[in-house]
Design a protein that fits this description.
The structure holds 2 protein chains of 2 kinds. Chain A is an all-alpha fold. In chain A, 79% of the residues lie in helices and 1% in strands. In chain A, strand 1 and strand 2 form a beta hairpin. The mean pLDDT of chain A is 83. By secondary structure, chain B is mainly α. Chain B has a single domain, classed as MetI-like (MetI-like fold, Orthogonal Bundle). In chain B, helix 7 packs antiparallel against helix 8 and helix 11 packs antiparallel against helix 12. Classes of the chains: A mainly alpha, B mainly alpha. Chains A and B meet through helix 1, helix 3, helix 4, helix 5 and helix 6 of A and helix 1, helix 3, helix 4, helix 5 and helix 6 of B.
């Protein structure tokens, strides 16, 4: 009887270990399979040329990723530029000024905001942001804009990354030891001075990590940007030009181009680029965050 | 600063408000109880029952797979390995990164995998891809719960002579409320995601009856209806968006309820 229990225990242990290792390998599997799919196009054309030219004519065999890469980067930068001040102020407020009651009251809002599916954000964007830009904002600066623009994408993305940004920033601020802020306050510094000189300084790496994480979230957003960005393969020149981020490119064309191997391979390259950038960004910021936790909890 | 906090609350209310305001007039009982009829996409009658059911089928299957995979992982790294073991931390790290991978990449990978295995766009493909998407969420939130569990419990079980496997069965029961919360969170994420199912699940006007058939999903149904030039169909997209929002809000409240219930019972 006991022998049987030991065998069962051992079998379960091996099985669990196997599943765990599979989970870890999964990351590598995704990377490798996307890369092998992307390999034909890299072999056919120079990778450098693919990444730095702007001509996108798949039926003639021109695959220049520059417009898509630039669109992705611009949209994400707009999003973070809009979202960072808001979320920084909010999380400082929640962490230092507000009572715990306010914090408890606020938490569900962040949860719901992070739970809303991206397609809903897309609907909201097309209903409000896009017409608003087309009617009121764009005419002041450019002659014509449909509203489906980089700016619309940036605003919608900014709202989408707010909850992530706030919750990481809150965690980062909470990792600062109480004694440190207490000491500063005791020496006669005002709350604002303490925030500026102690909190922000101490949590600087954490803030950077939070930014990097949210930027990588913004990079990968698909449906919402697909709905508000306009999807026109050109290098966007101003805020009101329509743009075409990488995920939207993949989503729009996948499945239609099965007949053209080089087209498919090019889209796989797009997916691989996204994967690579996001894994790198995530790895760096996660390591920073873990280190912060360690430093303060010693 | 209070202003910025208020802005955020206002934005949320604005989003939900806009969607509800636009969608409510076209929301009717038919929307949630009927399949799309003939000419549905031209503005004739019908509903999005196919998408609602399809979404739940896909997410249900994906949840099942991800629970079956993530509970062993969580048990292994928390209770089989020593505390603070390097391997456990590497595992957590990998799942954190997987959590950050955008759904479109999972979608592309899932599609490539399906082509390789020879599966057409189907319920099966959708389930597998969504499972990839929600497994990291499940695993990380279960891990948080498992880490909060007092160490005395496993110690007591082991000292009574149970094997580690028998111990995990008690522990799983102990963290059940946490499992439910994790399931609800993953459900919300899975139901709202469109990019993963875009290539893998296909789209259909019927309710799938087997794993090999394509399945419609709610986010995609919104997306396709919104792309139509006919106003009636667009209005219906808004109504579908209201349905999806209500589902998400309900799930979010449910998660909140269960997690608060759990924290009350904490030892």
């Amino acid at each position: 009887m006991n022998y049987f229990r030991a065998v069962k225990d051992n079998a379960a242990r091996q099985l669990m270990l196997g599943i765990t290792i599979f989970g870890i390998c999964f990351l590598v599997i995704i990377g490798i399979s996307l890369f092998t799919k992307a390999l034909p196009i890299i072999k056919e054309k120079n990778l450098w040329i693919l990444l730095t030219t702007g001509d996108w004519r798949p039926f003639k065999g021109d695959f220049g990723f520059l417009p898509f890469i630039l669109s992705t980067v611009y949209v994400s930068l707009i999003a973070i530029a809009l979202a960072l001040p808001l979320s920084l102020l909010t999380s400082i407020y929640l962490n230092t000024y507000s009572s715990s009651k306010v914090r408890k009251f606020f938490q569900p809002f962040i949860d719901v905001l992070s739970g809303i599916p991206s397609v809903i954000y897309g609907v909201w964007g097309t209903l409000t942001i896009v017409p608003f830009i087309a009617k009121y904002v764009a005419p002041r600066f450019v002659e014509y804009s449909s509203g489906y623009s980089m700016m619309a994408g940036g605003i919608v993305l900014a709202v989408m990354i707010l909850p992530l940004l706030i919750s990481i920033l809150l965690e980062v601020f909470q990792a600062i030891p109480q004694e440190m802020t207490d000491a500063s306050l005791q020496l006669g510094a005002t709350k604002w001075q303490t925030i500026k000189k102690v909190m922000l300084k101490k949590s600087f790496p954490g803030i950077i990590a939070a930014i990097v994480l949210s930027v990588s979230r913004a990079f990968g957003e698909t449906i919402a940007v697909l709905m508000v960005c306009g999807n026109f393969a050109q290098i966007p020149l101003n805020l009101f030009d329509s743009c075409y981020p990488l995920p939207a490119l993949i989503a729009n064309n996948y499945g239609e181009m099965m007949s053209m191997p080089s087209y498919e391979s090019a889209l796989m390259l797009a997916a691989f680029l996204l994967f690579l950038i996001i894994v790198l960004f995530n790895a760096i910021s996660r390591i920073t965050l873990v280190q912060i936790e360690k430093r303060f909890y010693m | 600063m209070i202003l910025s906090a208020l802005i955020i609350i206002a934005v949320l209310l604005f989003i939900v408000g806009t969607v509800v305001y636009k969608g409510l007039p076209s929301l009717s009982w038919d929307m949630i109880t009927k399949l799309p009829g003939g000419g549905f996409y031209l503005g004739k009658e019908g509903g999005v029952l196919n998408a609602i059911i399809g979404s739940f089928y896909i997410v249900g299957g994906a949840l099942l797979i991800s629970i079956l995979l993530s509970i062993p992982v969580v048990m292994y790294i928390n209770f089989y390995l020593q505390k603070n073991s390097l391997f456990a931390n590497i595992t957590r790290f990998c799942f954190d990164i997987l959590f950050g991978i955008p759904s479109i990449v999972f979608g592309a990978f899932g599609f490539a995998l399906m082509v390789y295995l020879g599966i057409r766009a189907s319920l099966m493909g959708g389930i597998l891809t969504v499972a990839m998407l929600i497994m990291p969420i499940m695993m990380r939130s279960l891990d948080e719960v498992a880490r909060m569990l007092p160490r005395d419990l496993p110690d007591a079980l082991l000292s009574l002579g149970s094997t580690k496997f028998e111990m995990t069965r008690v522990i799983v029961r102990q963290i059940m409320p946490g499992v439910i919360t994790a399931v609800i969170l993953a459900l919300g994420r899975g139901i709202g995601d469109a990019a993963t199912v875009l290539f893998t699940a296909g789209y259909t006007d019927n309710i799938p009856t087997s794993l090999g058939q394509p399945a419609a999903t709610l986010p995609l149904s919104i997306f396709f209806q919104l792309g139509s030039p006919i106003e009636e169909v667009q209005n219906r997209a808004y109504a579908s968006a209201v349905i999806l929002t209500i589902i998400i809000l309900l799930l979010s409240f449910a998660a909140r309820y269960f997690s608060s219930k759990y924290s009350k019972n904490k030892i």
